[in-house]
Input
Amino acid sequence: MLLLFAAPLTVICFYSAMTRGPYGGFSLPWTLDSYGRLADSLYFAILLRSFWIAGVSTIFCLVLGFPLALFISRAGPRKNLYLTLVILPFWTSFLVRTYAWMFLLRDTGLINTVLQKTGLIHDPLPLLYNDGAVIVGLVYGFLPFTVLPLYAALERLDPNLLEAAADLGATPWHTLTRVVIPLCAPGIRAGTILVFIPCLGAYLTPDLLGGGKSVMVGNLVQNQFTSSRDWPFGAAISLTLMALVMLLLLLFMRGNSEEGLL
Amino acid sequence: MKRRALPVYAAAAFAFLYVPLIVLSAFSFNASKFTVWEGFSLQWYAAAFHDPQLAEATGNSLIIAVVATLLSTVIGTLCAYGLWKRKSPLLAGSLYLSLVTPEIVAGISLLAFFQWVFRFLHVRLGMHTVILAHISFSIAYVVIVVMARLRTVDPKLEEAALDLGANEWGAFWHVTLPAILPGVVAAALLAFTVSFDDYVITSLVAGVDSETLPMVIYAFARRGVNPVVNAISALIVFGLGVLILLSQRLQKT
Output
């Protein structure tokens, strides 16, 4: 038993050493200058922009995911099949799925080619390498993360409550806004946080679909560690990002005290 | 609520999830290099199979994924078992944390950690660092899947084995492990897919001799769309899809 418990403990030590790693590559003296530079308008703008892109993507995920979760929760015996269908693309290569959108969106990509052939447009639409492309990629990538918790919440909903609401004269819209959504609040919170956090730290999607034009925090970190070779600043940004993620998680846990994260 | 609108909407949502992948795969059979359909052809698959860089990268990816899967499955299963026997908020917390850590942050902290270790040891970035990194992020997935399976096991079974004279190791090996084996295999399959697919962390901790398949795909994708990439992508989606379906099936048995 001691051995079995010691093994995981060693792993934690390993983990903690890894996250503390960023201090490793530095030279003295100690300084907080790197954090000060984050307030610089250019970097601060990138941070705000990441929040904006992650926020818009999350809203899209919720709006698109809610009806889908509602559909699955009412699908009866086919529920498991539909759930598997939602999860399956999530596990098959994120890189390939991002590449698929490059294939569709670029100037000579499928969408532009089809539109040009049918004569709807003359010149290709600039679909790739902008914020829109990044948001599409993120929504596509993380939609399952909203559907699953929303489904779990809708599944627990007592159908009698809906009937009661209808019997008492509520319109479907009122039932949705006054009964279903408030009762699903934990699921909605979970879905929000599960999408917002990975979107905020996204690297691959803005890199490939945003080109150099739609930079997010993740790209900034990578840049500091590779081309700029400014490790302390890169570490400061990533620790700030990590702190933001943990803050969001704490807020979420306070809201959903009895619900688990997964 | 709108009874007929909902299924139509769901069909559209599933189309949104699958059409990009289907289109991508369909165009891997296109005779033309451009996004215009010019007939069926397997030439991009032939090109993919004859590319030495791709062959080497695939070999690297397979070695890394197999080793990382084996090790993370063993460590992860023991972690889950430990957590099942005794609550540990610290361990549970660190596992959740490793799930929500942005990949780029995990990658650079691993890189910095390795660089720090290298000051004392004469090793360099390479396959071993990639494998260590992959183990570090696969463990959490393994623990979650195995944990779900352990919750269905009655702790009294192990107590009974102990009463009947088995030692702790024997009770685990002969009683608990067989009961959770489908979960462990499912977890291993999942760990394999996350390891095989990872780009962000791998690219940061890889050395010159350890280019993986996702790194090659990324390099191709940066240069623009290439039908050879469509062909490899189609193969990856199909292969990983089968593994995931298998894993899902095992988790339910």
Residues 72 and 135 of chain B are 5 Å apart (CA to CA). Chain B touches chain A through 79 residues (CB under 8 Å).
